Amino acid sequence: MAVMPSIKSREVKIVQDIPISKTLQFWEALKQGKILATKCRKCGKLYFPPAADCSNCLASDMEWVELSSEATIETFTHVVVRPTTFQQEKPYTVAIGKLKEGVRVLAWLTGFKLSEVKVGMKAKLVAKLTPEGRPTYEFTRPE
Amino acid sequence: MRKVAIIGVGSSKFGVRNDVNVAELAFEAFKPSIEDAGITPKDIEFVAVGSTGAGAWYEELLPAVVSAEYCGLTGAGLLRCEAACASGSAAFATAYWAVASGQAEIAAALGVEKMREIDTPTMMEWIGRAGYYLWEFHNFGLTFPAYYALYATAHMARFGTTEEDLALVAVKNHKYASMNPIAHLQNRITVDDVLSSMVIAAPLKLFDCCPVSDGAASVILASEEKVKELKVDTPVWVAGIGYASGTANMSKRLDYVGLEASVAAAQKAYKMANVTPDQLDVAVVHDCFTIAEIMAYEDLGFCKKGEGAKLIREGQTEIGGKIPVNVDGGLKAKGHPIGTTGCSMIYELTKQLREEAVEKSRQAPMKNYIALAHNVGGTGHYCYVTILRR
């Protein structure tokens, strides 16, 4: 198809400041190597990702609890074609794992060859800081 | 609620439409739809527009307003509906409710999307963010093929569905798209072509994925009274609309072998229409990725859970089979201009039910004159199921 005539729109750079004041403890704990969830003091429901308000009973009285690291992988994919802001990364594996507490976590899976990754296998959930200093968490090989 | 009929439909050509802007593209679908209905823009009291990329992958922030002005609709009641990839169905449902409630006699649902004004990695970025940005994109870079690949992996592990089964969906939908002059991809492909195409997000490959398309579709709806007054030859009646939603976090879904929102929306639609799956003559389902079509067979009750792959292997979803599916090429090959798709599905089913699919080779045989459209937004975030009856 021939290149169609067009004009360039005005350029904007978009960076949003995402508020994390209500889940700050979670982001701080990641730097200490811990992964926290919240638990509703009224109805007992456990939240991961952590939430300041309970979507089950609508109370806003949460306690922080540390999650175990034992996960069972329920599904995964290996992302080869990456979006703009992940172009500098090598292809990465993303998995959803279920923790023994019952909550599921979606995160990168590292430390395995892709051919080794299977639905139903065990993995360890760990907190980490990226080389750029961004707090995150990932599944990795259990010791 | 009163009875509502579809009295006019129109569609643009789908594809890379860098020859037109968003308003010009909307016009290409709108004009044939009012000619089909035998009305003028001034007869339309309310317009619901489905469009998703406003200000992100195309430049206009208020596409409903610019499209309405360009189509001579200024003055009508107007809004834009956002339900991700189901925005067109949300617009259709909104226009339906406007007429069914008695608020309007004639309403329009207009889907319009321009996706090819930005580069592909930026498109992957925007759409990848359309899940739960904070918890699933910011640190993990999930793309849309990757989200559906999570379903594919789980479905394959649980039911033994294979990459060849997924490929069969692409082969079928390309076959029908090759007979559809408005389709984006009109090339026929083989199972080997799919299996040897580049990996996008394993196990999904390039030919498991729908293309990034521009396109518009328009639907005109009217009350029973108006249908009589306008002496419409073949009104197509809205028999049922079902809707539901799923969690924003993929990690909060109960499992990864189907979409809970599809099941719930389908149950509502079947109940409202008083129809069972075996009465359907034809269906269009949300096949943004090949695995999505297999899950749709199961979630919509065309077969039991886990037997979707068997249905495609046996050719039961082709013309001549139990339930022809996506005989317009589907999202997979006709194209998936996100906010347009829901209206485009209604366009196709209206043509099928009137038995005027321009290409006779892809006309589904009609017995009960009942058809179903299934439109998912996001990764099961939204779902609309619409049942039409002639």
List low-confidence stretches of chain A. Answer: none
Mean of pLDDT of chain B? 97
Biggest β-sheet of chain A, characterized?
Answer: 5 strands, mixed, barrel
The structural class of chain A is mainly beta
Total of DSSP H or I helical runs spanning 4+ residues of chain A: 1
Oligomer: heterodimer
Describe the protein.
The complex is a heterodimer of chains A (143) and B (390). Chain A has 143 residues and is mainly β. Chain A has one helix at residues 24-31, and strands spanning 36-40, 46-47, 62-66, 70-79, 92-99, 104-109, 122-129, 135-140. Chain A has a 5-stranded mixed β-barrel with strand order 4-5-6-8-7. Chain A is globular. Chain B is α/β, with parallel strands linked by helices. Chain B has helices spanning 22-37, 63-70, 87-100, 120-129, 133-137, 144-159, 163-177, 191-195, 224-229, 260-273, 290-299, 308-313, 330-333, 341-353, and strands at residues 4-11, 46-50, 77-81, 106-113, 199-202, 204-205, 215-223, 236-245, 282-284, 370-377, 382-389. In chain B, the strands form 2 sheets. In chain B, strands 3-2-4-7-1-8-11-10-9 form a 9-stranded mixed β-sheet, with helices on both faces. Chain B has a two-stranded antiparallel sheet with strand order 5-6. The radius of gyration of chain B is 19 Å and the shape is globular. At the A-B interface, strand 4, strand 5 and strand 6 of A face helix 4, helix 5, helix 6 and strand 5 of B. Strand 4 of chain A pairs antiparallel with strand 5 (199-202) of chain B.
